[in-house]
């Protein structure tokens, strides 16, 4: 097996998968194998998850690098057709600070917002289904009526966030800080079955879906 084939196999993909498929497979596998999802007292499984995550990161980085390089070569014009360099200013890099921004009703499904500062942002009614938001800062953010179906919010900062009537079915809030958050009317259960992962989450002072304050 070649090294390239091994990278595809790590990401559970067929050789020749597109860059979009590589990115999606990476997000899916990180969601499954992130060490923060594993109880720390289970040392064997925790070690296995760390090794898996290392292999997944390496495979994604190598495949993405190869595909970006291939696209650059494929779409590069012949030397005689290349335009002389222009002296225009390059666009600034993506700003990780999105605090206070208005994303109300925006479609952010499947986006990778991990590590972003989105404190006090307006995400009311936004579609955040399957969005990767590991360690995102959403302190004081308005997430009322947002769709967070299967969103990955591991270790997210959601202090004083407004999650009223949000859809949290299938979301992973393991290790998240929900102190003082308002979850009134949020969808978290099907009958008596809790369908949100809250392992290690801090819910002190949070208003639960039934209106009770968590002690």
UniProtKB/TrEMBL annotation:
Superkingdom in the source lineage: Bacteria
Pfam family, one: DnaJ
Compositionally biased region (Polar residues): 101-111
Disordered, as annotated region: 68-111
Coiled-coil ranges from the UniProt annotation: none
Domain J: residue ranges: 6-68
Listed name of the protein: Pentapeptide repeat-containing protein
Species: Mojavia pulchra JT2-VF2
